[in-house]
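User: Quick sanity check before I run a bigger batch. Here is a single chain. Can you write out its predicted 3D structure?
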Amino acid sequence: MPRVLLFNKPCGVLCQFSPSAGKRTLKDFIAVADVYPAGRLDADSEGLVVLTDDGKLQHAISDPKMKLPKTYWVQVDGEPDEVALRRLRSGVDLDDFLTRPAGARRIDQPSGLWERIPPIRVRKSIPTSWIELELHEGKNRQVRRMTAAAGYPTLRLIRSRIGPWTLDGILPGQFRLVDHQQLRI
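Assistant: Done. Predicted structure follows.
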């Protein structure tokens, strides 16, 4: 039976086990042998990372062809209007590629949200708000590039769900093993 771990990656942690000078990595949090991340999050992003010891499952989780939905909570500069949300929903031209259509909606700040270390920058004259984005792909810095192209730069990015798995009940820097009944994707 494959092992699957759900990890809540804190800001500043690299999605790798190999050491990197002066940087925290998965090895600083996960002392489980032979598991590897199925996809990555940038160092300045937070949230759900799925790790497994099963190569086929790892590929199925991370391969865009599988269309496994990934949900992100995004704190942005400003208050996106319906025009900006429609743009995110219909696909955004990022010069090097056109994003697939995405789910996009305004949300309240997620309940139970932990403090980010380091904190985001705050400007008194510009309000911030939250968007929930659901993607079926995951290219390098895609969410940040999408919100910037829509006119609302990302301040904080948290992946909250990958397919059937969520961050529910997992504190930053903590992980839990997935029950065998929850392994279907």
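Residues 69-162 form a domain with the Alpha-Beta Plaits fold (CATH 3.30.70.1560).

User: Great, the batch can go ahead then.
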